[in-house]
Amino acid sequence: MTAEIGQLALTLALALASVMAISGLTGARVTAGISRDLASSAAIGMLVFIVLAFATLVYAAITSDFSVLNIANNSSLAKPMLYKITGVWGNHEGSMLLWVLVLAIYTSAIAFARRGSQRLTSAALGVQGLLAVAFLLFILFTSNPFLRVDPPPFDGAGLNPLLQDLGLAVHPPTLYIGYVGLSASFAYAAAALITREVDASWARAARPFMLAAWIALSVGITLGSWWAYYELGWGGFWFWDPVENASLMPWLVATALLHSALATERTGAFRTWTLLLSIAAFSLSLIGTFLVRSGVLTSVHAFANDPERGTFILIMLVLAIGGALGLFAWRAPSLETGSAFEPVSRETALLTNNVLLIAAVSTVFLGTLYPLFLDALTGTKISVGPPFFAFTFVPIFVALLIVLPFGPRLAWRNASVGETLRPLSPALGVAAVVAVVVCFVVRSHLLAAIGAFALAAWVIAASLLDLVQRRVRTAASVAVALAHAGLGVTLMGIAGTTLWRAETLSLLGPGETAKVGPYTLTMGGIERVDGPNYTAIRADIHVSNEDRTIATLRPAKRVYPTEQQETSETAIRTTGVSDLYLALGDERGRGRFVVRAYYNPLAPFIWFGGAVMAMGGLASLWGRVRARTAQRIIDAVPAE
Amino acid sequence: MNARKKRRLYFVLALLIAGAGGAALVITALNDNVLYFYSPSDVGAKHIQPGTAFRIGGLVAAGSLRHGKGAEVAFTVTDGKANVPVKYQGVLPALFREGQGVVAMGALDPSGSFDATQVLAKHDERYMPPEVVDALKRSGRWKEGGT
Q: Residue B51 has what pLDDT?
């Protein structure tokens, strides 16, 4: 019975989404006040029904209702309760349901917040309605999670063990909050074009949504990279895998968008460009969804290989992106442009930021999609690996980091060169000191290492200085400093891990030793340890540093009998500054196992920097919300 | 030229320069860093030079897995028509099995055997690397629904 409730709820949500689309777009006209209210109510109704549908699926998963095909295919009795719940979005159908759930939450937020004019809100709800209709149709016709199977099996097929991890509980929802959050700024941009209200107000209305999306994407990417690090057992944190790139591209465009929208809000500059970026950011989210969900890519994320779904998403992609760009082409030439600015000004800095970020996105886009195009057109199968991105993406990002500290210093419209450069000289000094320290104290004569750490020091020192030297510290200035400094911290982590890593591969039997970095590893013993739904072999490896035993690490290998699959459970010992990373390999006879060991200096900084960046985003969001609340109180005083 | 046109011109120029720079980097990088995928039959037919990096994919031939010194392993990749011997030093992926699909990255050595730097297997029982499926289809060894 429960699955039918879910099915019904989804159908009703679809009906409400259609109502919202039509009434929202009608309400964009000056006179249609009733339509506007109808759109808001429909948005909230849609949220209620989608929550109900989602709850139904979670209930079916918890009660192991194998008469629901989706549960039978992706769950099993032996699976721990936590993974029964998180497994709901660990498969294609469930994850699409999560997608529309997040979409409905954002839509209700737009309806409740009523930022911008009434017409703008109404049109934005209309656009969100169209998106919701498309995705609900997609779910009902190609990816229905409520299909029944008769007769029901006694046990389910289980969930991919790689995904039976706490990382899965949080990584996809966070990424979706990011992807779908960009739909809100897309909807506001389209609404601005529809209503021709392309002044600063739409950018101001959309900004909290842009920020929320950016924060969520930052956290999601950081979590994904951390998950790949400890779960895949390769010791790496980023593989330039197409699925990783699919999340990186919207993040890069969202970063560009946050910067460009800042100028639009403050001085009205780059109006049309900001609109275009809003469209591009969400388009890349959709392309990411297409890449991941259509099965054209091969990875852990490729849940399903169903050409029908691919075609459906492709059509949706063409309609959404084509429609928005068509609207843009139609309306943009008639829009007013913003105020002028001098070559040395904040606007120029933001422009440079945008040009470099877009160039960076383009290289990632090409590297990710070129193999697909080549395969489709000529049948030649190629892959584009990390060297390509190291050669293209990295130089662009280095350029971006070199100019980054100047941005927040420059005044709007017309800035003085001297006043901008003088306060920055201490940061340059710090960078020089760090370069000397890396070269002579750490004794790393790699030019890349010296350069990378000097650059990171330059960015971090300049960001902190900016905060210290300010007379008035606002939430916004804290946000800028944190976001920029976080980038520097991540850079240190990346540089340390990739340039100074030590790696050994050894065959160890009981009592045998190996060396990695400053540590000596001694194999203690191998034992069998079984879990609720797996059997495992675990090695006790004693770690010593200068003849002093400091820890025992226990990397393991698990076999999941239901899913017929093995996973590697890495053991990581972190000091906060460096990681010792052990992965247990296959047995090579007489009780000897292959052990892969890495010493990763500064690895924790990669994720720590990501967290600092996200905190910067939160600071900005908090400042916005507080300012808005204060404004509401002021507005409320003279009663209308 | 008024200020607005001037600004637009700068913007377009900056975009063009960044675009051209990006394109130049991308084209050079693509030329040097693209890895082609070949099936064992392709390796014989295309006379690939030793030292050229590429990816090879197919099935691990039954009974071909040999352990050498330390972490060394050797096995044969087959698509049913041709075989290529592969040497590898490292941890085999968890799902590496004889008779199952595999993709390896590396280059041929002068003796014609493949020196792998990385070996990938399928992620789970339901999944087979699409390149391998394709290679098996071309050699006529693919059975729909079979493993």
A: 84
Bridge partners, A548 (sequence order): A545
In order, the DSSP letters of A441-508 are IS----HHHHHHHHHHHHHHHHHHHHHHH-SS--HHHHHHHHHHHHHHHHHHHHHHHHHH-EEEEEEE
Say if the Cβ atoms of B124 and A160 lie within 8 Å: yes
| Residue of A295, A294, A299 whose CA lies nearest to B123 | A299
Q: How many CA atoms lie within 13 A of A362 on its CB side?
A: 19
With CA atoms as reference, the chain B residue closest to A557 would be B94
Q: Looking at residue A414, what DSSP letter applies?
A: S
Across the interface, which of B22, B70, B96 has its CB nearest the CB of A363?
B22
Please tell me which residue, A147 or A489, carries the higher pLDDT value: A489
Q: How sure is the predictor about A310, in pLDDT bands with cuts at 50, 70 and 90?
A: confident
| Structure-token pair, residue A200 | 């600063």
Span A500-515, pLDDT tens digits = 999 888 889 898 999 9
pLDDT band at B122 (very low <50, low <70, confident <90, very high): low
A189/A324 Cα distance (integer angstroms)? 9
Nearest to B94 among A385, A507, A567 (CB): A567
Q: Closest partner residue to A337 among B4, B29, B129, by Cβ?
A: B4
- List B76's β-bridge partners, or say none: B85
Q: What is the DSSP secondary-structure string of A150-219?
A: SSPPSS-----GGG-SHHHHHHHHHHHHHHHHHHHHHHHHHHHHHHT--SHHHHHHHHHHHHHHHHHHHH
CA distance linking residue A453 with residue A458, whole number of Å: 8
**Residues of chain A neighbouring B26 (CB-CB closer than 8 A):** 362-363, 366-367, 392
Question: Which residue in chain B has the smallest CA separation from A370?
Answer: B30
Q: How confident is the model at residue B50 (pLDDT cuts 50, 70, 90)?
A: confident
Give how far A113 is from chain B: nearest CA, Å. 35
A588 to B71: CB separation less than 8 angstroms, yes or no: yes
Tell me the angle at which helices A242-267 and A166-195 cross, rounded to the nearest 10 degrees.
40
Please tell me which of A186-190, A236-240, A296-300 the model is most confident about, judged by mean pLDDT: A186-190
Chain B residues whose CB is inside 8 A of the A233 CB are: 91
Contact A383 B134 (CB under 8 A): no
Q: Give the length of chain B.
A: 147
Best of A240, A354, A381 to mutate (most B CBs within 10 Å, chain B): A381
- Please compute, for residue A111, the number of CA atoms within 13 A of its CA located in the half-sphere on the CB side: 29
Q: Average the pLDDT over A163-181 and give the result.
A: 85
Nearest one of A635, A636, A634, A628 to A112, comparing CA atoms? A628
What per-residue confidence (pLDDT) applies to A640? 39
Closest C-alpha among A390, A389, A602 to residue A497: A602
What pLDDT is attached to residue A302?
43
Task: Report d(CA A455, CA A491) in Å as an integer.
Answer: 9
Q: Cα separation of A566 and A323, whole Å? A: 46
Cα–Cα distance measured from residue A251 to residue A174, given in angstroms and rounded to the nearest whole number = 13
Give the residue numbers in B contacting A (CB under 8 Å), as ranges. Answer: 3-4, 7, 10-11, 14-15, 18-19, 21-22, 25-26, 28-30, 32-37, 55, 67, 70-71, 89-92, 94-96, 123-125, 127, 129-131, 134
> Is the confidence metric ipTM above 0.85 for this complex?
no
Query: What's the rounded Cα separation, in Å, for the pair A281 and A240?
Result: 19
Contact B26 A367 (CB under 8 A): yes
Query: Nearest by CB to B37, which of A382, A387, A585?
Result: A382
| Cα(A483)–Cα(A464) distance, integer angstroms | 11
On whether the CB atoms of residues A581 and A609 are closer than 8 A, the answer is: no
pLDDT digits (tens, 9 = 90+) for A278-295: 999 999 998 887 777 665
Do B30 and A370 count as a contact with CB atoms less than 8 A apart? yes
